[in-house]
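re the bet — no i am not wrong, look at it urself. input seq straight from the record:
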Amino acid sequence: MFELRRITKSFGGVHVLDDISIVLKPGDRVGLSGGNGTGKSTLINIATGFLAPSSGQILLDGHSLNDQPPWKYARAGIRRSFQTSRLVPTLTVRDQFRFETCDPARRRQLVAHSALEDVLDLFPFQVPLPVLRKIEVVRALLADPRVLFLDEPSAGLSGEELSAFARFLSRNVSGDAALLIVEHRQDLMRVLVDEIVTLESHVPSVATAGKPAEAVGDA
């Protein structure tokens, strides 16, 4: 079980997050919604070790991850994608995937299920954006994460591309991995998640939870 407990974050005296608590159990599918400036990406950065909270605890199976570097979060099974690509520009897609020490059969299966065989020997700049978005998610999935955070994974996709991307995520993000996703596209959120946590659009941000159909506001 992964837990964000009473997370608060301030920047230079400006409160961004205040007393946010979220629990992710195996198999949970949670969307994180809220207007611009409510701290959605800040919360993901804290949850994955890229940013320290001003107060509060990050717990995995009851053990604190506070003050640990991001690579220790990753080693513990906490993976993420970013709003903008973090792929290494000088490596082919095949080599990007080799960063992850997973079973070769699992790698081949996930690549095949994601229809990525034809781009394995291309560099990121040679790959169309919809495919690039899939590559970023697949790289995280190859680590067989316990908790997966996706930060606006469909950014830049058209309506038709979004539908295909939603099918890709539904097919491949499965099993016991817990998922928390930040998305501007509420239609994608409704397909993927069972609950939406909304960061209210006042400062400091506070969280309220509801079913996808009940969620309001911009993601």
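see?? The chain has seven helices and ten strands. told u. also Residues 2-214 form a domain with the Rossmann fold fold (CATH 3.40.50.300). so pay up
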